[in-house]
Design a protein that fits this description.
The chain is of the alpha+beta class. The protein is built from ten helices and 16 strands. Strand 3 and strand 4 form a beta hairpin. It comes from Paenibacillus validus.
Length: 358
């Protein structure tokens, strides 16, 4: 989707896709719903490595669509859903999977995944919300469709059980000042953001490191050039001070998974066991979701590891970033993370006996 000034949010990533595609014999075309012309044609962008620049090209819809659209508001959501409805015959490498509440319900259907899910309910002011706060010393409130840590609230029950320490980020990702609140004040804050019916409430998993900063892990699971699911990599993310989220967009930093785990557990055998449990969970998740949603090429999975080493599944993101691998110097993994959707596209094309992608 175009942002202000017809700027594309992931243009650097798209350039790398074009360069990688050229090496595989694929032409990568970048377009938005605004670029659609008459007769099912698009005025697309493509990057020419030999010229070192982007050029426009009027062409028919490509045979495979890799959807990287992020909605950023109702207008874009309607524009994209309208495109999908009008051109339903197009074949997609990726697809929307549903909001956080729907995903929780679907994943809870499988016992070996459900054991890794924090307790979760939709937010509704009243007794159920109060009971949930009483049951867990820390809970998180998250927008059902939020990304990048926007609007996430952490509530810690204070002694006496009648008030809570609230901190987090507003819908614009600004850090909220820490404040003492009652359940009524919590509901009022959410209502002020006009998101009262768009929140879930989730059991808090202990995420604090020794220095008080929170951390979690981002796993990237992708289809490879043989159409098989593979864990491309998993990286630890550490939030800035006073933040309740670890998102890199919110100022977080990254570290190799094994390094972060070893710093916590000081035991190589424990680190290997946790890593194996996390990888097995990631593969179980994508296979279960593929049974529900049909073929797709990748997901990002947010995981938490509690002080005992148990792996918790926090969130599934169907349009994951991969910059975290570059940030920590895992350049081989970063290149693989870029190339795998294209390798899978090539495999899909060959399997379905499509005409060669030109």
């Amino acid at each position: 989707m175009y942002l202000s000034g017809r700027r594309l949010e992931e243009l650097s990533f798209f350039r790398k896709l074009c360069i990688c595609g050229a090496k595989l014999g694929l032409e990568v075309l970048v377009f938005t719903p605004d670029d659609v012309q008459g007769n099912a044609r698009v005025n697309a962008l493509t990057y020419k490595p030999e010229q070192g620049k982007w050029v426009r090209k009027s062409t028919a819809f490509p045979p495979l669509i890799y959807d990287r659209c992020r909605y950023h508001g109702t207008e874009n959501y309607l524009k994209l859903s309208g495109f999908r409805k009008k051109y339903a015959e197009l074949r997609y490498l990726s697809r929307p999977l549903g909001n956080k509440w729907k995903m929780h319900q679907l994943l809870a259907e499988q016992a070996d995944i459900a054991a890794h899910l924090p307790a979760t309910i939709p937010f509704k002011e009243g007794k159920e919300f109060g009971h949930f706060l009483t049951r867990y010393p820390v809970v998180y409130m998250k927008p059902k469709s939020g990304t990048g840590g926007r609007g996430i609230i952490r509530l810690q029950r204070l002694p006496g059980g009648r008030s809570y320490l609230m901190q987090g980020r507003d819908p614009s990702r600004r850090i909220l000042p820490v404040q003492k609140v009652t359940t009524g004040q919590i509901a009022a804050k959410v209502a002020e953001w006009k998101l009262a019916d768009q929140y879930i409430v989730q059991q808090g998993i202990p995420l604090e490191l020794k220095d008080g900063r929170v951390h979690d892990f981002r796993m990237l699971v992708q289809k490879d050039g043989n159409g098989e699911w593979q864990v491309t990599g998993c990286v630890g993310r550490i939030g800035p001070k006073r933040s309740v989220t670890s998102n890199l967009h919110g100022g977080g930093t990254a570290a190799p998974m094994e390094t972060l785990l070893y710093n916590r557990f000081k035991d190589s055998a424990k680190v290997n066991a946790v890593r194996e449990e996390a990888y097995e969970l990631g593969l179980n998740v994508v296979k279960h979701l593929e049974n529900k949603f049909d073929v797709f090429c990748e997901v990002g999975i947010d995981l938490a590891i509690d002080p005992k080493g148990h792996v918790w599944l926090l969130e599934v993101n169907p349009k994951p970033s991969r910059e975290v691998f570059r940030r920590i110097g895992q350049n081989g993994t970063y290149v693989k993370a870029i190339s795998r959707p294209l390798e899978f596209a090539l495999w899909l094309s060959e399997q379905s006996n499509d005409k060669p992608i030109e």
